[in-house]
Specification:
Elements lengths: L1 H21 L25 E4 L2 E7 L2 E6 H10 L5 E11 L2 E16 L4 E17 L4 E18 L5 E20 L4 E13 L2 E10 L4 E9 L6 E10 L3 E10 L1 E3 L4 E3 L7 E10 L1
Antiparallel strand pairs: 1-2, 1-16, 2-3, 3-4, 4-5, 5-6, 6-7, 7-8, 8-9, 8-10, 9-12, 10-11, 12-13, 13-16, 14-15
């Protein structure tokens, strides 16, 4: 299984490298066109970034607004709107150092008329990041992220009424090393670590007999995500408009942007990252 993932990664790198050689467009790894994800940098005024994972717009210099595409796509599939928004401000950008703060939320619901099930969720996300330009080729990015998640659900299968809630809070730290090998290709090494996470706390109530109203309370704690980590080497290929970011590493699977973490066993200790986006 691991060999298959590595083969896919190598094929993607070779394809992107071939494209880079054949492309006549100017490369855009510059001091003004910089990586945005896992960095302190934001879009310049009126610039637009449309990607597989996120759509962003530069409101003014050093302030961008973004929305993640996956919640919207899932909302279309589940026929439920999933609004989400993120504001990122690079409040300090002088010489070699940049600092930023980000705040966002994701809200949505899932309903199943057949089983009379409804699940509502809310994510609150806060980030701080710093980026240091060591020289024209090397950059180091360090940051932290806090994610609060709240799920509330109701279900009425047969004559049983189920109600419950689940909450989890995560603190994630990350560091990314960026080495610009050329004007087209940048090598990245990303480290992610969860120094603290609340146990997934589930509270529930089951109404067994609708006539008598007999109920059973449930309060369960499980899944400890503390010390979850990932080490991910990757590449970013940048052309006139199109960009590709691809990487695969070892550890837990981190859903970038949301700060959520899946157990390492979910993907057999494979931690991928992939995005395709254009800027204009």
């Amino acid at each position: 299984m691991r060999q298959v993932h590595w083969h896919i990664f190598l094929v993607a790198v070779l394809c992107a490298a071939t494209w880079a050689r054949s492309s006549s467009a100017r490369a855009y790894h510059t001091d003004k066109i910089r990586l945005l994800d896992s960095t302190a940098y934001s879009l310049p005024r009126r610039d637009v970034r449309v990607g597989l994972m996120k759509i962003s717009y530069g409101i003014i210099d050093q302030l961008q607004i973004s929305t993640y595409t996956m919640p919207w796509l899932l909302g279309l599939i589940l026929e439920e709107v999933a609004p989400n928004l993120e504001l990122k401000s690079t409040f300090y950008d002088r010489r070699r150092l940049a600092l930023s703060a980000s705040f966002g939320f994701v809200e949505g619901a899932y309903q199943d008329a057949l089983t009379k099930t409804e699940v509502r969720y809310l994510l609150f996300i806060a980030k701080l990041a710093s980026s240091v330009r060591l020289n024209s080729r090397l950059r180091v990015h360090i940051g932290g992220q806090y994610t609060g998640t709240d799920f509330v659900g109701d279900s009425e299968p047969a004559d049983t009424d189920l109600r419950g809630a689940a909450v989890v809070y995560l603190l994630q730290l990350w560091g990314m090393f960026e080495w610009r090998l050329s004007r087209v290709v940048a090598l990245t090494l990303t480290l992610r670590w969860v120094p603290w996470a609340s146990d997934v706390l589930v509270r529930g109530e089951v109404a067994i007999d609708p006539n008598t109203g007999a109920t059973v309370g449930i309060n369960v704690e499980f899944v400890d995500l503390t010390n979850a980590y990932a080490i991910i080497p990757g590449f970013v290929f940048s052309w006139k408009r199109a960009n590709i970011r691809v990487g695969v590493g070892y550890g837990n699977f981190f859903i970038e942007g949301f700060g959520l973490v899946a157990p390492a066993s979910a993907l057999h200790n494979i931690s991928p990252e992939f995005d395709v986006f254009v800027r204009f």
